[in-house]
From TrEMBL:
Residues covered by region (Disordered): 54-124
Biased composition (Acidic residues): 74-83, 112-124
Species, as recorded: Amycolatopsis vastitatis
Key words, A-Z: Membrane, Transmembrane, Transmembrane helix
Residue ranges with Low complexity bias: 54-71
TM spans (from-to): 29-47
Lineage of origin: Bacteria, Bacillati, Actinomycetota, Actinomycetes, Pseudonocardiales
Protein name per the record: Uncharacterized protein
Amino acid sequence: MLYIVLVLVLAALGLLVTALITASSLWAWVSIGLSVLAGLILVADWLRRRRRSAAPAAPATPAASAASAVSPPEPEEPAEEEQTTLIPASGDLGDPADTPEPTVTDASPGDETNDDPEPEVEETPEADIAVLADLEDEVVVVDEHPRYHLRTCAWLGTRDTIPIGIGEARQLGFTPCARCTPDATLVAAHR
């Protein structure tokens, strides 16, 4: 079927070139007709293939369907399937007594490590929130963490930060860090 379409398209191309050379509109119309015929053949072939692929969904023989209607289907044994191993959630690792306690490294009190717990949320008064909405000052966020910080925040340590406007950070759902208190600091600097 595709060979017929190929021949028709090549013939249409040849007739189009002939129409351009001879300046005859008759050859151009014949070329257009052959192109339309090739397109119709492609559509017909597509519909035929589509019907053929949908046909195997019907029962193969009427006798098989009659036999299944007479006797109830026998319960099939569950086929052995490959079981996916899931990684347990952090709280589902078994008996807590078997879990080793995390070790604390020897770090001086001034050193901040990336193992610090997430800082608390800074409480911001309503009046300050209204002032913050108008500010375009920049704060920083850390990917996968819900707080925004000042660049000088000790919790950041060596973490990769993303600079963002404070208004945008609040719109995206980030909350202020209680360690560096960005809301109070920026409102005080604005006033």
